[in-house]
Amino acid sequence: MEQWLQNYDPLHNPILSTIIAALPIVILLGSIALLRIRIHLAAVAGLAVALVIALVAYRMPARAALPTMFYGAAYDLFPIGWIILNLIFLYQLTVKPGLFEALRGSLSR
Predict the structure, then answer these.
(1) How far apart are CA 22 and CA 73, in angstroms?
(2) Which long-range contacts (CB under 8 A, 24 or more apart) does 63-70 make?
(3) Taking the CA atoms of the chain, what radius of gyration do you get in angstroms?
(4) What is the DSSP string of 38-70?
(5) 33: enclosing H helix or E strand
(6) Measured distance CA(40)–CA(28) in Å, rounded
(7) Which of 6, 9, 49, 79 has its CA 20 to 30 A from that of 94?
(8) 27-81: per-residue pLDDT in tens?
(9) What CA–CA distance (Å, rounded) separates 79 from 89?
(10) Using CA atoms, how far apart are residues 64 and 70, in angstroms rounded to an integer?
């Protein structure tokens, strides 16, 4: 695989380069907050924008960008899955048997 060095100022303007680097986060949060798109679809949109920016603005080779995209997505799925697993466990322990009110009462004191 060829070596690729990241250019931190691809547009030769620090302000424009910062804006282009922040665009995936802006797309993600803006589509959730303003467009009310479902979170998983907004995440895919942010991922797609990040991939396009990496390929076009940063001129990252596709042979490096695609595996990096899949690695980043898989790396982020583990903590999210762990949180969801714990929420299901907490639901099974408290809400389903009717013990949530007792838990809420003990935490509010």
Answers:
(1) 18
(2) 63/1, 63/2, 64/1, 64/2, 64/4
(3) 20
(4) -HHHHHHHHHHHHHHHHHHTS---HHHHHHHHH
(5) helix 14-33
(6) 10
(7) 79
(8) 999 999 999 999 989 999 999 999 999 999 999 999 999 999 999 888 888 888 8
(9) 15
(10) 10
| Phi, psi (degrees; rounded to nearest 5) at 28 | -60, -55
What is the model's pTM?
0.74
Structure-token pair, residue 43: 């995440």
Structure tokens at 84: 């969801």
- The pLDDT tens digits of the residues spanning 84-104 come to 898 888 888 887 777 777 777
Q: Which helix (H) or strand (E) holds 76?
A: helix 62-90
Contact between 8 and 20 (Cβ < 8 Å): no
The amino acid present at 98, given as its one-letter code, is G
User: Do residues 69 and 75 touch, judged by C-beta distance below 8 A?
Assistant: no
8: its two tokens: 């931190």
